[in-house]
Amino acid sequence: MAGLLRIIERLRGPDGCPWDREQTAHTMVRYLLEEAYELADAVASAEAENVCEELGDVLFHVLFIAQMHAESGAFTLADVCRAISDKMIRRHPHVFGSTTVADSDEVVQNWRRIKQGEKNNHQRQSVLDSLPASLPSLMRAFSISERAARARFDWQDVDGVLAKLGEEVAELREALRRGLPEEVCEEFGDVLFTLVNVGRFAGVHPETALAGAARKFEKRFRQMEKVIGDSGRELETVPQSEKDRIWESIKASA
Description:
The chain has helices spanning 2-12, 18-22, 25-45, 48-72, 77-90, 93-96, 104-116, 137-150, 158-178, 181-202, 206-230, 240-253. By secondary structure, the chain is mainly alpha-helical. The longest helix has 25 residues, at 48-72. It is extended.
């Protein structure tokens, strides 16, 4: 860690890298987010070497942003570590204190209660206030519906959500029939938001589920491309009915 910090200090120093010296915390956030997604891909691949490498990339960007603030005198890396250490101890009284909990659900309840009582939460006017606007839309939709549910604004069960989904799909069909792009966009968004809630009731995060579905589709599509390519043909020239047969064959062999 100390060696990595010295590298960052050198990069940012007077005789360091011009590009690194020009960066600000605002410009570096983009790269941190990209690295976080690459880490997510590495974790999904379950390849330890990739996970190790991507963790290093994420750590580098976190330390880089911390170093920028240390240079301006705002805070140091030690302040960052101290603050998160205090927070973790405060939010785990069942580990570092005398509080007892029955299960992980009670841990989550205590966490939320403690978080709500912290200084930074006193000025919030809504349970939705602390949600970052820059969250990917599926993740943000899930968090919004989750917090609304905590405030007891929710369906009774998943059947209620599925009934609502049927209503939204019907409204989307009508919008498509009318052919108004803005209306179609709005109704399609409503369908997606309702599906997010179906996932929440089912205990499935939509981001994880969609990422898995995309990976599965990509794998099968690449296999179909190979089958057709091995036959000496271009994908675009093959009839859809034959593509469907190849796809179903790949699907059956998975």
